[in-house]
Structures are given as C-alpha cells and as structure tokens.
Design goal:
By secondary structure, this protein is an alpha/beta fold. It has a single domain, classed as Alpha-Beta Barrel (TIM Barrel), CATH 3.20.20. The protein is 46% helix and 17% strand. The chain contains ten helices and eleven strands. Helix 2 links the parallel strand 1 and strand 2. It is globular and about 60 Å long.
C-alpha cells in the first residue's frame, strides 16, 4: 500500500500523533520494519539516505519495496531522505518513490526556497510529496569522510510562513535541538520554540534525530506538533548488538542464514515497536 507522506500526515496532525520514519538499505531491514509495523497496525516511512546509494541500489531498493508493498495492509511511504541533488531526486521519483526530501539547510534562505520550489514542481508531476528543512539539524554527516559534529541552527518562526507559501512544500523538518547520530550529551528540545513553529506552519512538522532523544521529550514534541520523526542510529546500534550476540552464541561453522536473519529482523522490529508506540501510531490503520 504505497502512499504519499501527505496522505498519512494530515491525519497525524489532526489527531496529534506521529508516524516514525526508518532509514534502511537491505531486504532484512525492509522486512524487519514492515513486519513489525503491520503487526502494530501502523503506517510507516521506509527511508533511503543518498549517501548509501550506488548504481545497483536504484535497482534493488525500490524494486523490493514496490514488489512487497501490496502484500502489506498498512500505508507505506517510500521516502528519499536528505537529498540535495535534483538529478538524484528525479531518479528516485522515476523509480517509484512516493516522497522526497530536498535538504537545502546549508543554503541561504532564498536559495533554499528556490531549490525546494523546483523540487516541488518536479515531484508534482509524479504525485509525490516533498519534505524540506528550515534551520539546520546538526550532528554527524554520515557522508563525510572525516566525522565531526555539525552545530544546530534553530528554525525561526518568522521564516516559516514565507518558506511554506513560496515553496508549496508538503511537510517541513525543523530544528529544535535534536541532532543526527549519537549524542555526546542528552539534548534539551526547545518546546516553546516548537509551539511557535507549529502555530506558524500550515503543513505537518518533522523532527530529525529521533534516535537517542529521551522519550519524555519526544512525547512533548509530538504533543506540540511533530507529525513524523526519523530513526536510523537506534536501528544500526540494535543490529550491531545483535550481530555480536549471534557471533558469540552460534557454534556451527555453517549456520543456516534464515536463523540469524530472523534474529536481526527481531532486533530491528523491537526498535520499530518502541518508536511506533512512542509516536502513538500503533492501531491507527
């Protein structure tokens, strides 16, 4: 049941819950996410990060998602995350992505508006949704060779109305104190700022950096306007911890793959369940 972000997030905004988005790259991740989301009767975003793209990813990833989506009875959004190249965005749309993000957070305000507006024009002909980012969610740049922390630039409420009106964007990622990757210290989300942003914004709000953010702060963010939040680091950590456990516990030299693939899917699914329940998205289908 492939659908657009707009189709599911308007309901989330009206009823004050959020839909989690999970970055994933391989079949074991896709299935782990979808199986658990379906068991929870929750809509879900499957997200692909362009930094993990290679030529074959364009064949495999959307082909797998398109092939399995109709076997599930929940709404699934196939979303391109953090793209800043229009050719990559077009390729994603050509391959069936139903939602794309143009990340102009490193650009000037006017440049961000122009590039996001162009993305919206392209996506419109495909019937796809567009997410943009205003402000800058810092943390780790996964595509950088030298890893370092990028500082946050908080979203300004007085820019939101102009940005949304001039771009026609469907959903807006805002910066209120989260970060990508792991936190060197726990964040403190600026909920008063979020309230101002939600009051100013006519489209659903998105929070990046959903991994590691304390549950009480996440609940407060959802109560005050966040309709989608992104998760990747928590899934990577869960998979790696389960990999290590499997390596210690397995005694065979040639174990059957189905057994340890199932364990990896379970580890992924546990993260999906925790985040979906936190979001209040369970039972919404």
């Amino acid at each position: 049941m492939l659908c657009t972000a707009k189709e599911i997030l308007n309901d989330a905004r009206e009823k004050r819950y959020a839909v989690p988005g999970f970055n994933c790259i391989a079949d074991v991740m896709i299935r782990g996410i979808l199986d658990r989301a379906e068991s929870l009767r929750s809509p879900v975003f499957l997200m692909l990060y362009p930094g993990e793209l290679d030529d074959k990813t364009w064949w495999y990833y959307p082909a797998i998602v398109r092939a399995v989506a109709d076997r599930y009875t929940i709404p699934i959004v196939m979303h391109l995350d953090h793209a800043n190249d229009l050719d990559v965005i077009r390729a994603a749309l050509d391959n069936g992505f139903t939602s794309v993000m143009y990340d102009g957070s490193s650009l000037s305000f006017d440049q961000n508006i122009e590039m996001t507006r162009r993305t919206v024009e392209i996506a419109k002909s495909y019937g796809a949704s567009v997410e943009a980012e205003l402000g800058l969610v810092g943390g780790v740049d996964f595509s950088a060779r030298e890893k370092g922390n990028i500082p946050n630039i908080l979203t300004q409420p007085d820019e939101v109305v102009t940005f949304v009106e001039r771009t026609g964007v469907d959903l807006l990622a805002v910066s209120i104190g989260t970060a990508h990757g792991t936190y060197p210290q726990l964040p403190k989300l600026d909920i008063p700022l979020l309230k101002e942003l939600n009051a100013a914004c006519s489209v659903p709000l998105v929070l990046h950096g959903g991994s590691g953010t304390p549950d009480d702060q996440m609940r407060s963010a959802i109560e005050n306007g966040i309709c989608k939040f992104n998760v990747y680091t928590d899934i990577r950590i869960a998979m790696w911890n389960r990999f290590r456990k499997i390596a210690v516990e397995l005694k065979e030299n040639d174990p059957v793959p189905n057994g340890y693939f199932a364990q990896l899917r379970e580890a992924i699914g546990d993260v999906v369940e925790a985040k979906t329940t936190l979001a209040g998205a369970n039972g919404r289908v």
